């Protein structure tokens, strides 16, 4: 599945092929309405999907804390919306949600929230299980021997995945976040609520024009 940013189409490929049905990319256009560009709503633009997460044979994309988009391919794309009770992640008045990531953990949809205070300091990290049947978000304090790896910010709905922690030398019950703002890797232990900041780019020179290549996660297969 490929979702070009800002577009209103997806590219889908059925893995595997045979002589009678070769694998091929298929383009599907969609229309899921519009969103406001100003407070009065006089200017609007087409809404596009971001950060599709596969879970339970369906594809989900986060719209807001009170709604999820659901995409089913059977075989043509069918879009529906699941209404949710609003999440209440804020613990203080000076905290706001900076980044949100959706991830399938053992067949259940989860959201990772990265909170930042006014000074850009990360104040808290939270993981919510998305209960689609009861249509609510449930905050959880432990993900066991797992490490969730995320990167990017909410504006571009970065990627997320997970793997077994101890098997791959990672800290259990932790969130690994690659912050695109300061290029630091932050490791959060959910139970102890501790943070470790690492600098993976230390000693790496920027290009002549001052740009740098964004890193991406290569997550091992879960066996």
TrEMBL record:
<feature type="domain" description="KIB1-4 beta-propeller">
    <location>
        <begin position="8"/>
        <end position="188"/>
    </location>
</feature>
<dbReference type="Pfam" id="PF03478">
    <property type="entry name" value="Beta-prop_KIB1-4"/>
</dbReference>
<protein>
    <submittedName>
        <fullName>Os06g0135220 protein</fullName>
    </submittedName>
</protein>
<dbReference type="InterPro" id="IPR005174">
    <property type="entry name" value="KIB1-4_b-propeller"/>
</dbReference>
């Amino acid at each position: 599945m490929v979702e070009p940013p800002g577009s209103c189409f997806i590219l889908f490929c059925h893995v595997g092929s045979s002589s009678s049905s070769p694998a091929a990319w298929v383009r599907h256009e969609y229309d899921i309405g519009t969103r406001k560009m100003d407070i009065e709503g006089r200017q609007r633009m087409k809404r596009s999907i971001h950060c599709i997460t596969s879970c339970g044979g369906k594809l989900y994309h986060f719209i807001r804390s009170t709604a999820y988009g659901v995409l089913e391919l059977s075989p043509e794309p069918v879009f529906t919306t699941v209404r949710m009770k609003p999440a209440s992640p804020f613990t203080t008045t000076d905290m706001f949600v900076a980044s949100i990531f959706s991830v399938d953990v053992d067949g259940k949809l989860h959201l990772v929230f990265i909170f930042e205070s006014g000074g850009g300091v990360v104040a808290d990290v939270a993981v919510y299980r998305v209960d689609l049947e009861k249509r609510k978000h449930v905050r959880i304090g432990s993900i066991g021997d797992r490490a969730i790896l995320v990167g990017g910010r909410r504006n571009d709905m970065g990627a997320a995945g997970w793997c077994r922690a101890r098997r791959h030398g990672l800290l259990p019950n932790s969130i690994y976040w690659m912050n695109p703002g300061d290029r630091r890797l932050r490791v959060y232990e959910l139970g102890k609520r501790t943070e470790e900041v690492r600098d993976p780019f230390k000693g790496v020179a920027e290009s002549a024009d001052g740009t740098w290549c964004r890193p991406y996660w290569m997550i091992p297969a879960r066996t």
